[in-house]
Design goal:
This protein has 418 residues and is α+β, with helices and mostly antiparallel strands. Helix content is 52%, strand content 19%. Strand 6 and strand 7 form a beta hairpin.
Length: 418
């Protein structure tokens, strides 16, 4: 191979072989430990972030089974011309479906149990086009919501709290009361439970109930829907599309995407992910410190070799390059092995985790406690590329000081006792 002599010598120092002296073999062992430390840190960081991405994706998808990508409502509280708004919104190339909704608050009673809930009036024919709630229904379908029949679909936790299921009856109490000579009397209406749904997100499973939009208009005495729910082609583009729709539509309309409706939760997840990234990056930094000690030991051991190279005409820069090559090679190999190992584990967690559970007789996510019973994984290039770059940069920085010390070696002093 037609390589510069700095690269050839650096490679030779890295792979100190069987004929090397005992101390050289020890240095080679330390180099392997440094390489393994970098690989372990990179792999751990990739696996942890992939699992966090998987959980975030799983929870987000469960949220969007009951939420729309974008909601359009009026500051005045009602949207009487919702068909026109929906038609204008559908002119955007990203919007693929629209459905009206009514949102209100009420209380449900069953026996002595009382639970507060958010009641959403929906159109059973249009709702499946904007959400995936139909995939989570139990004991019935959206077709069971018939206008005038006063049926209700309850979140699974709300139904459990009330002690009811499909076929049972509950009483809904609307806060908007009726004025009578005896005072204001709240409006009550008996509903029969036609189905339950389980989104996997406790907030919605315990507080959300869905009824036919016609029943909602009569019960809450609302003459028009509260707004329009939209579905777009790519939910990741919802913030951008919502901003564009806000500019297209009337100024009196409020346009919110799914990320704004759950801003606190997503901000907390992102903060946790950043902190985990910083903490696990310290593992790579520790391995880089090991690389510093490895190169310092190598420079100390190779004093006579450095002196001979200087005597033969090698410049300080060339000597520095020899040890930069050695350290960089350890960092590159460790990083590549870590990336390969991390991706291998992250992409096969569905096989690895059950095998570990079977081997040790444990269950990390019991099905009777957690809705998500398997570790989800979602490796992303946006995480892997920064991890790789940081690892390579730390490895390169770790080589600079020992290499500089090597370049400052004085041949006469180094060869004085040889």
């Amino acid at each position: 191979m037609n390589l510069p002599f700095e690269a050839r010598i650096g490679l030779r120092y890295t792979r100190a072989g069987r004929r090397a002296r005992r101390r050289n073999a020890f240095i080679s062992f330390i180099s392997g430990i440094s390489m393994a430390g970098i690989a372990l840190g990179v792999a751990a960081l990739i696996v942890v972030l992939s699992v966090m991405n998987g959980f975030q994706k799983e929870v987000r998808d469960r949220m969007l089974s009951v939420l729309a990508h974008i909601e359009i409502s009026s500051y005045e509280g009602a949207l009487p011309d919702w068909q026109r708004v929906a038609s204008e919104a559908r002119k955007h190339p990203e919007v693929i479906a629209a459905a009206p909704y009514i949102s209100a608050q009420a209380m449900f009673t069953s026996g002595d149990v009382v639970r507060g809930a958010i009641v959403r009036g929906i159109d059973p024919a249009l709702e499946p086009t904007v959400s995936d709630v139909v995939l989570n229904l139990r004991g019935g379908t959206l077709a069971n919501l018939v206008d005038g029949d006063f049926g209700v679909i309850l979140g699974i936790e709300l139904a459990r709290g009330l002690g009811v299921g499909p076929g049972d009856k509950v009483t809904m109490i609307a806060p908007q009361g009726t004025v009578t000579p005896a005072g204001i009397v709240p409006r009550l209406r008996q509903f029969h439970v036609v189905a339950t749904f389980e989104s996997g997100h406790y907030e919605y499973d315990s507080t959300l109930a869905m009824i036919h939009i016609g029943d909602a208009e009569r019960l809450f005495r609302i003459e028009a829907p509260s707004g329009v729910r939209l579905k777009i082609k790519d939910m990741q583009e919802a913030p951008r599309v919502a901003s564009q729709l806000a500019a297209m539509l009337d100024p009196g309309l409020l346009v919110r995407d799914w990320s704004r409706q759950n801003r606190t939760w997503f901000a907390a997840v992102q903060t946790e992910k950043r902190m985990m990234f910083i903490i696990l990056t310290l593992i790579i930094a520790v391995a880089a410190f090991n690389l510093v000690s490895t190169l310092v030991m190598t420079v100390t051991e190779k004093q006579s070799d450095i002196a001979i190279l200087r005597t033969l005409g090698a410049s300080p820069t060339s000597v520095m390059g020899v040890f930069i090559v050695q350290g960089a090679l350890i960092g590159v190999i460790g990083t590549l092995v870590g990336v390969a190992g991390g991706l291998l584990i992250a992409n096969n967690l569905d096989v690895i985790v059950p095998a570990i559970e079977h081997l040790f007789g444990v269950q990390f996510l019991p099905k009777d406690i957690y809705v998500i019973s398997a570790l989800p994984s979602d490796p992303r290039a946006s995480d892997i590329v920064p991890i790789t770059v940081i690892s390579l940069v730390l490895s390169l920085v770790a080589t600079l000081y020992p290499s500089w010390r090597a370049s400052r070696t004085r041949p006469a002093e180094a060869l004085r006792y040889d």
